[in-house]
Amino acid sequence: MTRKRKRLYVLLLCALGLGGATALTLTAFQDNLVFFRSPSDITREAPPPERAFRLGGLVEQGSLQRTSVEGRPLVRFTVTDGAAKVPVAFGGVLPDLFREGQGVVTLGKLGRDGVFQASEVLARHDETYMPPEVADALKRSGHWNPAQGPAPAAAEWNTLNPARPGSGG
Amino acid sequence: MIPEIGQFALGLALVLALALAGFGLLGAQRAEARLMALAPPLALGMLLAVLASFLCLVASFVENDTTVSTVVANSHSLKPLLYKISGTWGNHEGSMLLWVLILALCAGAVAGFGRNLPSALQARVLAVLGLVALGFLAFILATSNPFRRVWPPAPDGLGLNPVLQDPGLAFHPPLLYLGYVGFAVTFAFAVAALLEGRVDAAWGRWVRPWALAAWSFLTLGIGLGSWWAYYELGWGGYWFWDPVENASLLPWLAGCALLHSAIVVEKREALKTWTVFLALLAFALSLLGTFLVRSGVLNSVHAFASDPGRGVFILALLMFYVGGGFALFAWRAQAMTPMGVFAAVSREGALVLNNLLLCSVAAVVLVGTLYPLFADLVLGQKISVGAPFFNTATLPLAAPLIGAMALGPLLAWKRARVFPALQKLWWVALGALLAFLLCLLLAGARIGPALGFAAATWLIWGATADIAERIALFSRPRTAWARAKGLPRAAWGGALGHAGLGVTILGLAGMGLAEDKLALLKPGESAVLGGYEYRLESIADAQGANFSARRAVVQVLRNGQPVVRMEPEKRSFPLARMTTSEAAIHSTPLRDLYVVLGDEREGAVVLRIHNNPLAPWIWLGAGIMALGGGLSLSDRRTRVAAPAPKAQGVRA
Q1: Number of A:B CB contacts under 8 A?
Q2: What ipTM was assigned to the predicted interfaces of this complex?
Q3: Do A62 and A21 share a domain, yes or no?
Q4: What pTM value is reported for the model?
Q5: Are A9 and A84 members of one domain?
Q6: Which of B625, B627, B631, B644 is nearest to B205 (CA)?
């Protein structure tokens, strides 16, 4: 085989590899990108019921209920961004840092009854931490203007009245 | 006093690094022997200065000097000594100092053991390492000085994050950094080669051991981190495709490719440009990993330290080194002429395929890791890319890689035929098919795990077939033992590395069959999972050194016979105001029994029970891979390392 032929083969192989990787990436992206939604986003436009997404906000004070259905433990709580709220059901062990009044991000699907069926609940290893998506959702719902200082204490969020409801976008 | 000495030593190291970079590059450029001879002592001096600085920081942690802000933020007088010492690198400032210390150690090793290197090459390599150290020392002194004092001193420290108080994690960062920084040396060799415009077998002989060592340490570090996440975070998972995890996987993939292509340079003097490119890439991805972890731009469950100002500085360093490296590559790569010619079907061809697939996997992982950042900055969308993406996008690329892994070592250099090699593997293929069918039979129609078992069998038996072929076990069994003793360690190491990946895949396939269950139990009640009965005996308070805990006692029974008593805990650390779950794990070769204690309600407790078949093999496999690397490294041929540039080449 001549040098030129060989180089051609190597180039073809490279193109095949890269093309394959790109095609795989794009198809995988199509099915597996997980979008972040705040409670206000969901009230404005309900996502399709079979699509998984991340719901984030603050756990409403006093909304946490620990129950059991047919011997299986079930946790119910409400996620709020001040302007809107979404009830969440989760059949699992809550992370150690899960608290009422604190930021939380959950992964799951919205049921037809409007209850978000969470398959994962994420809370950070730091109790003062606010997930960036949640902070962003709070800004968009008009609860926090970063120019006026740091975000108010998380525990107060659900008692605040929405200042400018629906001003997000 | 001690912190001031540390600070001074750090400044001294900066000056020495500057001198090393300047004199080394200038001396090699002008071919002035006196200037080049300065490089090794300067590198050793830099090592001494950084070491002194690091020891000062360790001393401050051990004696709990509360006038040092890093100590106040991360330590406490009541902490056990091991965690006081590991707390030195359990925080941002200390871990960056550890990074530079390891870099200085590598430079010291090149200076100390590299006497038989051509002096210009040695001077350039040391100078590039000095340049890298210079940037990171400046970063430490400018943005994250570990010796900053606070006045008045705090009464005591705030304590280390309890999740990090763990023997596994005490050694995770040093191992990972040994891997990251090891690629700095291959990067330095690549830059030196580009400056010289020459890559030969001697260069390959020097690069390969470094790539091998870095890769082995990185394998151990990733394995240890994954194991830590498994037993400490209590989610029952071992790999989350988290950005920080991906950040360590990317250099591992590039390093793996480099390791293999360096063999081709060493033995056949081909693929030179490509190897240089991979050496640049491996370090670029290491730096990217450092940037992602240290800047906190990515939303990660593992982000323990983050600061935007530092992020910008590291980004600037990243752009300088990586941009500079690749610019040099674009400018000088033409100068390297390949010597060895090979056919498409040959050992070299198989290694090219390996490189291509590894790089494709790395590209997919890189896109998946960075796309959320891109979508946020450019499209204004909040998106996350999770495990389903990575699984669907990487597995189709990994499958041909695994297929070729058993075949490649059986092909001859230069020119080979596929069919005879396949003939040698027929019993391996049969074994893989049997494993596939057996899994389908025993575990039901679960294609994924069954394919995993087939792949694991293919790799492990394939490695055995490779060794059997080399020692002619079947054709001349009488002399096989003598041949086995005479076989170079690199051959054993390679086979062991491939088999280690097979063992890891065995564990992953087993975990594909894992099941878990939530149970709400009162004392005396029990739950059944996977043939095991878990009976809750009691739940009570317990007291530890710096925490209080709720501890459940769970008796595990199989067919009415007691198997083990497990005691999962929920610990609360009053100092850090944190609670952590300590999963109880009972490991056997066949499975892990894994119990996590949840919350309590009305006299009952929530238990999450996992049955994880073959789980321990995942990390054991990583250990075997690293061992293979170590064995290969101990080969006489790598230790002698480049006696004369002409002596080798044909030796295969």
Answers
A1: 115
A2: 0.74
A3: no
A4: 0.89
A5: no
A6: B644
